[in-house]
Write a structure and sequence with these properties.
Blueprint (H helix, E strand, L loop, with lengths): L3 E5 L4 H12 L3 E6 L5 H7 L4 E4 L8 H5 L4 E4 L13 H21 L3 E5 L27 H19 L4 E7 L1 E3 L9 H11 L9 E6 H13 L7 E4 L3 E3 H8 L12 H7 L4 H7 L11 H7 L6 H14 L9 H5 L1
Length: 333
């Protein structure tokens, strides 16, 4: 019988693709949902997955969730579209939830836990050079989300040091793009939706290191299967690409604005627009990281970013989350 894998946060963007990847490779998969109310919609998209109720904010259900599992892939974590009123709204669920999953896994005899962290735990305060897995974000200059990812990952490594019987590997993805599986556009693909919808008068000068969610799912599986991955973290992100460059790629197929907004105008717009307020925090930031370790040790590869962007746009249109903006030719007509 094939190995059983628990994937936390089964209704999430990353988790859905991880589940698809694992099922396609012959694994049996159990997924957690915060409420049984979400089970039906997840099951419709991911037939073949067993769903159980377990919330990161409570102990109830986790012992049952990990029972009989050889592996756990922990993807669930809060990812806000705007800054919380207090940073603990993000930090406590991220840290406590990660430790709750690890404690249950260790108690149940799980062999390995693969945790989805973020480059947010790598790059903050470390600009101006190429970053690797040896780098950690500086908590003193982190925004709440960045701090939550950094502290949650630190807590996971501290737990692993105290429980050597449980193997831990961590994936640190960049900005996650790629096709959605159902009509929900979370924060990670929200920027592409904004470009297609024309919600802003132009494109702010933001830079991102992206990863396709399908490639990210493969990275999670490889980190789960590769013996040498235990005790390692892996950056999964491509070369830096700017938001204006993304718009140029999308404009090959869709009627998308490629006008670059000056920084001063973005800052002015932030007084009235939530998307602009988010953008201001990232103006001028570099995202220079290398995925060489994942490529060498896991044999991992990424598809071209243009393919990922166009596939993301197609899925957003297919699910009705944005109206088809038409082609550049139809605009000229």
């Amino acid at each position: 019988m094939s190995d059983l894998v628990l994937v936390t946060g089964a209704s999430g963007f990353v988790a859905g693709h991880v589940i698809q990847e694992l099922l396609g490779r012959g694994y049996r998969v159990r997924g957690t949902v915060r409420s049984v109310k979400r089970a039906a919609e997840v099951a419709d998209v991911l037939p073949g997955v067993e769903l159980v109720e377990a919330d990161l904010g409570a102990d109830r259900g986790w012992a049952e969730a990990v029972a009989g599992c050889r592996y756990v892939v922990h993807t669930a974590s809060p990812f806000p579209s705007d800054a919380p009123k207090h940073e603990d709204e993000l930090i406590r669920p991220a840290v406590d939830g990660t430790l709750r999953v690890l404690r249950a896994a260790a108690a149940s005899g799980v062999e390995r836990v693969v945790i989805t962290s973020s480059i947010a735990a790598v790059q903050v305060g470390n600009r101006g050079r190429l970053l690797t897995e040896a780098d950690w974000s500086d908590l003193a200059v982190c925004e709440p989300y960045e701090k939550s990812k950094t502290l949650a990952e630190r807590a996971a490594w501290d737990f692993a040091a105290e429980h050597p019987e449980l193997e831990v590997a961590v994936i640190n993805p960049g900005m996650i793009i790629g096709p959605i599986l159902r009509p929900e556009a979370g924060t990670s693909v929200g920027g592409i939706r904004t470009l297609l919808a024309g919600d802003m008068p132009g494109v702010p000068r933001l830079n991102f290191a992206t990863v396709d969610v399908r490639d990210l799912a493969v990275a999670h599986r490889l980190a789960m299967e590769t013996p040498e991955a235990a005790g390692n973290r892996y950056i999964c992100a491509g070369d830096e690409i700017s938001f204006p460059e993304m718009a140029q790629i999308l404009a090959r197929r869709y009627r998308v604005s490629t006008r670059v907004l000056p920084d001063w105008l973005v800052r002015l717009s932030a007084r009235f627009n939530a998307d602009a307020r988010t953008a201001v925090r990232y103006l001028g930031r570099e995202e220079r990281l290398t995925a060489a370790k994942a490529e060498k040790e896991l044999g991992w590869r990424m598809r071209p970013v243009a393919d990922s962007l166009l596939d993301t746009a197609a899925a957003l249109i297919e699910f009705g989350l944005v109206t088809d903006p038409g082609t550049p030719k139809s605009r000229a007509a």
